[in-house]
Design goal:
This protein has about 180 residues and is α+β, with helices and mostly antiparallel strands. The protein has one domain: Nuclear Transport Factor 2, Chain: A. It has 4 helices and 8 strands. It has a 6-stranded mixed sheet, covered by helices on one side. Strands 2-3 form a two-stranded antiparallel sheet. It starts with a helix and ends with a strand.
Length: about 180
């Protein structure tokens, strides 16, 4: 009988964690999300990057044209389009690395201005400035500065982006 009670308690605890604690977003979760995102970008792991988007992911308000470094993300993109863009960007960086005989790398900076957590702690809207530079140690190919609001949720302990609203983006290319 005590084994059954122990099993029921263990399952109850696991269920509570998964459905309650495992679905609450914190400010630390938001900060860790962006660190992990850029680490995966640096590693060229487009699959892991795509796994950081919810299936319902939508981004709005930006057209990115990465001449020689990938593709185009339309003014509104779903998860599939965002992932295709990331694959193209990473593939473009790899091709440039091979062409130049040296690594093409990213340099990122994130300034989180605000993290607004919903009253039920099921989502957080992160407002911030995001800078992405792509190039070699000697040469910068692209610099992108973006201001955005990104909504994050947590499902089963994993933080996911559900949408990104870009309020301002400046992109500079260098030949």
């Amino acid at each position: 009988m005590s084994k059954i009670i122990a099993i029921v308690l263990a399952l109850s605890g696991a269920g509570y964690y998964y459905f309650v604690l495992g679905s609450q977003v914190s400010e630390r979760d938001a900060q860790n999300y962006f660190t992990a995102y850029y680490d995966k970008l640096d590693a060229g792991d487009d699959k892991a990057l795509c796994d950081m988007y919810a299936d319902s992911y939508v981004e709005r308000g930006i057209v990115v044209r990465t001449a020689g470094m990938g593709g185009t993300a339309p003014a509104e993109a779903n998860k599939e389009a965002a992932c295709a863009f990331l694959r193209g960007l990473i593939e473009g960086m790899k091709k440039q690395s091979e062409k130049l005989g040296m690594p093409v790398v990213t340099n990122t900076q994130t300034v989180i201005e605000d993290v607004a957590i919903s009253p039920n702690k099921k989502s957080a809207v992160v407002t911030g400035k995001f800078e992405l530079k792509i190039g070699t140690e000697q040469r910068l190919f692209m610099k992108q500065n973006t201001q955005a609001k990104i909504t994050l949720i947590k499902q089963g302990g994993k933080v996911l982006a559900t949408n990104s609203d870009y309020t301002s983006t400046q992109i500079q290319y260098r030949e």
